[in-house]
Amino acid sequence: MGLSSAAAGEGPQLCVFDLRRGQQEGQELDKILFFHPADCPILLQLSVIGLCEGIITFARFAVLLHPLLTRIPLLFVLLLGSSRRIFSPDDDCEVIESEKHSHVFYQAEADIWMVLVVEKNKDIESTWRCGALQGILKEVHSLFTMFHGPIRTLLDRQPSAELARGHLRTFFTDYLSDFNAGKKIQLPTFRDCLKERGTVQMLTISREVALEVQSLTTVLGSCLGNVMCQSLVLFEDLLVSTTLPPDDTLNLYTYAILRLTPRALLSNATSWSYLRKGTSVHAGPTSSSSNGTASVERYRSRSRDTSPGGQNQMHHYFRPLQREKLYKGKDGFVAAGSTTSEVRGAVAWVPILWFQQAEDRMHLCVYQHKNITILLLIPASSLINGDDGIAHVKRHLLENASQNIVTLELKLSRGWGGENAYHVGGYRYLLVDPDRKVSRASPPGKVTTLSKDSLLSLNRLREEIDLEKSRAKRSDSCHDKDFEVL
């Protein structure tokens, strides 16, 4: 007996829903903004989200019921899944464990929740850490907001939610494609316990190279005359420099690692999007009452037709995570189009991003030279001439920064020790600085030399650390953050 909202063997489920919507009887479907898998029956979608909504509501008021629940410990365990969990109106529900499933919660925005439901099984290879799963939810929401803005803003702009659903569907589905393992989704397991999602990996450089980086950053900042441009410089998959605040740096760095670095672009060219293999976005058939059937049909219609104008223009949605669309052009700038027809298929790719910490909208222009990736950010409010202004910035970069980039790449390549540069003989480690959102870890190839038992022990240790951090956060919200070393 226990919490159960999913059929056995169906794989992970991810949903996004708005608690402010669908409060009237018969309108429950309106609160669903995204559900994976898309072909999951409507009644099962409603069951999953209904259970999650009940848990959220219960968790918010559990502190008021705590004296009663402690008198009925069996009921407490059955409802909460774990007597170790502490709830209060001031803290969001994070994880609910049941006999067959784990429900991982994340309140992305006010009353907008993301929930990942994963099935438990006896296969030890499927052992995961709930903190790592919640990191996936935080990451995809941060990336989505950087490209499309807050979900609540999209809902306010178009109350029917068609715009929000369309962007969520394409963005989240493209993001989840990175976890594809055949026909299944492979989420992070205990074998990833020495990785930290939501952090930046920095490249250690000498004083001489630091001066070269400073010179390049100055040139990049002046690409638009008196208007200061921002920039990130990467060498392979490591961050060399940034002029953005930490949160904005993390989001853009994460996107660069996923899709823009030389390694990512090579992966883009050899991959395919399963969306184009016929994966549908409508729900599967179900049985329901006549009123329910009408609601289902309206929901299916909205799921297929997500454009503001009411036409099926799904392919017109900007899809920054669609792998096969991005590649390095002949001029060194990343372009969008067909890699097999570069001249005919290429189009300018200069998306506008929203940086919450910097509180500004900026155009992103990406340039590559060998192992160097330059992410140049141009304030949208200062770019008056549109495409002509972008062309001017590109010319300025090529004319004034090319030599700096070549020199920097040469010096970094000479001093780079390869993927094992940060290996510490005899140790396997993970170092995290929460304040700066920076981490460093043993190379993946070295981590694989650990035994399964060692990795499982490390995973359990990280679970205990996550629990202690959560307790410390509740007891003292102003406590100092320390380095975390494993």
UniProtKB/TrEMBL annotation:
Gene Ontology CC entries for this record: Mon1-Ccz1 complex
Biased composition annotated in UniProt, kind: Polar residues: 285-294
Region (Disordered): 279-315
Pfam families from the UniProt entry: Intu_longin_1
Cross-referenced InterPro entries: Ccz1 (IPR013176), CCZ1/INTU/HSP4_longin_1 (IPR043987)
Domain CCZ1/INTU/HSP4 first Longin: residue ranges: 15-60, 87-149
Annotated family: Belongs to the CCZ1 family.
Protein name: CCZ1/INTU/HSP4 first Longin domain-containing protein
One GO BP: vesicle-mediated transport
Domain of life where this protein originates: Eukaryota
